[in-house]
Amino acid sequence: MLEQSLLLTDLYELAMLEAYAAHGMAGTASFELFVRKLPPTRGFLMAAGLEQLVGFLETMRFMDEEIGWLRASGMFSPGFLDGLAALRFTGDVDAMPEGTVFFGDEPILRVTAPLPEAQLIETRLINLMHFQTVIASKAARMVLAAPGRQLVDFGLRRAHGAEAGLLAARASYLAGFSATATVLAHRDFGIPVSGTMAHSFIQAHDDEATAFERFARVRPKALTLLIDTYDTERAAAIVARLAPRLAAEGIHVTAVRLDSGDLAAHARRVRAILDAAGQNGIRIFASGGLDEGVLQRLVIDGAPIDGFGVGTSLTTSADAPALDCAYKLQEYAGRPRRKKSEGKATWPGRKQVYRRYAADGTIAGDVIALAGELMDGEALLQPAMRAGRRVAGLPTLEQARACAATALTRLPDVLRRLGPGAVPVAISQGIRDLVARMDLAAQPDSVP
């Protein structure tokens, strides 16, 4: 279960809430979540995490024991803490549906709510949306690198904590992975679960043939045998001899797994051994230190590998573990707001992202516009919550997975090949005019 405590936040969120309360600042605010710029190794990102955010917002509240702990801490005034017991999220959320491809500076989510509510959720909102977006974006690259191959998440043990491992399984499945090895993800999200055996199982037996046969009789369905504990090709020959005898009993070896060495070379030799024995139906599955670059090279090289298990590089997004994302105030009390910090300036006002497509259906470019501007193209931010409740028809995980699959087909070829490139993202004239008006209004009166 995901952590729901409102104490899972930064101290400054509560400090600001106390100051807002002291000065009666509870007007309507709009905040937007966006990524300032993409990592050097990314040509696109994929939105994920909205389902968990909506679930958090629907149920958020301070428990009596939490307020009691805050009282005992002495960090806040008693009057402020009295008001926290009634705090709920009553606002609206508009967001890009999970599985949507997006680019730098584009708002992927907008929260419109009373200022204290919209402020308090900042930390957990970024925490939930950022992590799954990081992992879905990494997984999407692997899906593109190994088209048509089975991809399985093997990353729980190397994830940075239990929640990260669980949500990585969800995000990778959303992006196009076939299954996960994480049992809880199967229970909680319905993701297909897949697994083989460890080298320790082979080592615990006096010989590989006995280990294979015992495992096969206990786990006959979707049977995959690990063959690289000692001598990969020798073990492949053992499987080739064992398979007909097991098949006569209705037990079929589905695949063999390679986990070390030169995967392409071993796969070719193993394929030849199995085919020579008439076992061309046994698939080859590979794991061990894989990322999208390795997957791409194996596919281009024509290695006869049917599926891959990916762990560490997936659940840590090793080459780009964090995004330069921000959740910033864009409007308060009916007035647009703008941050002008050097290198971190924001575009003011509530915004929408419009996407245009080329004649072949690929993404031609996006325009970031004010929410009230009428623009050509597909509006990407869609209602997710209204008055503190999720909207009817919010996409399921399977629907988000389908959205992601479609989104990847609509990438320009250069991005599908994981090469350097970018989709043009323009800023509307309406936003530029708003900035000009705000700058003019901010100028000091001239002195005669």
Automatic annotation (TrEMBL):
GO terms for cellular component: cytosol. It catalyses: 5-phospho-alpha-D-ribose 1-diphosphate + nicotinate + ATP + H2O = nicotinate beta-D-ribonucleotide + ADP + phosphate + diphosphate. Keywords: Glycosyltransferase, Ligase, Phosphoprotein, Pyridine nucleotide biosynthesis, Transferase. One of its GO terms (biological process) is NAD+ biosynthetic process via the salvage pathway. Pathway: Cofactor biosynthesis; NAD(+) biosynthesis; nicotinate D-ribonucleotide from nicotinate: step 1/1. Its EC number is 6.3.4.21. Pfam families: NAPRTase (PF04095), NAPRTase_C (PF17956), NAPRTase_N (PF17767). SUPFAM superfamilies: Nicotinate/Quinolinate PRTase C-terminal domain-like, Nicotinate/Quinolinate PRTase N-terminal domain-like. Transiently phosphorylated on a His residue during the reaction cycle. Phosphorylation strongly increases the affinity for substrates and increases the rate of nicotinate D-ribonucleotide production. Dephosphorylation regenerates the low-affinity form of the enzyme, leading to product release. One of its GO terms (molecular function) is glycosyltransferase activity. InterPro entries: Aldolase_TIM, N/Namide_PRibTrfase, NAPRTase_C, NAPRTase_N, Nic_PRibTrfase-Fam, Nic_PRibTrfase_pncB, Nicotinate_pribotase-like_C. Residues 7-129 form the Nicotinate phosphoribosyltransferase N-terminal domain. It is an enzyme of class 6 (ligase). It comes from the Bacteria. Residues 150-331 form the Nicotinate/nicotinamide phosphoribosyltransferase domain. Gene3D superfamilies: Aldolase class I, nicotinate phosphoribosyltransferase. Residues 378-434 form the Nicotinate phosphoribosyltransferase C-terminal domain. Belongs to the NAPRTase family. Catalyzes the first step in the biosynthesis of NAD from nicotinic acid, the ATP-dependent synthesis of beta-nicotinate D-ribonucleotide from nicotinate and 5-phospho-D-ribose 1-phosphate. NCBIfam families: NAPRTase_put, PRK09243.1-3, PRK12484.1. This is Nicotinate phosphoribosyltransferase.
